[in-house]
Give the backbone structure.
Amino acid sequence: MIEVKNVFKSYNGEAVLKGVSFTVQSGEFVSIMGKSGSGKSTLLNIIGGFLDADKGSVLFDGKDITSFSDKETAAFRCKETGFVFQSFKLIGTLTARDNILLPAVLGKMPVAQAEKNLKELSQAFHLEEVLDKYPDQLSGGQCQRVAIVRALAFSPKTIILDEPTGALDSKTEEEVMTVLSHYNKIKGMTIIQVTHSEKVASYSSRIIKIKDGELATEGSAVANKFMHR
């Protein structure tokens, strides 16, 4: 279970998050939505341990990650949580294959298991033919899929995604969201995503809306609205 408790964040004296609180149950698929500048990506980075809150706490199964040291935070991200950045953040000097395997290696996953996960995921995301290419040889959509596979490859309990389909065409978007939904439903992976897209959000079980740095509304995603189930 993930508990976000009274989280505040300001930049240059301007409040971005104003006491945001909510809970995500284990195995839940939650979408966070809001206009640009509403604070949703800042919130996501705090949940992922990439940004410090000014006040408040974020608990994963009762452990407050906001109190972790840098070493503890790094270990937590290597073993517990996969994060997909909106800007991909692939390492340019590594092939797609090595970018994907890097978190698994850092998390000390057995090589055989890591390779098995890589094979399964590269097939699911149609990346088999680009695994030996470097990021600058890939399209934006391919980089997006590599970033998602990298986050999934070490089998984290939770995956956190910032605009996971922003660089994808509609067909690939549907394929990616179907795979993510599978990991949520079949494997029980907790998913938290930020998205502007109502279609993408409809794959989740719950939508949290952020407005001007505050929790606006919560509700269930619209079932079958886009006929993908």
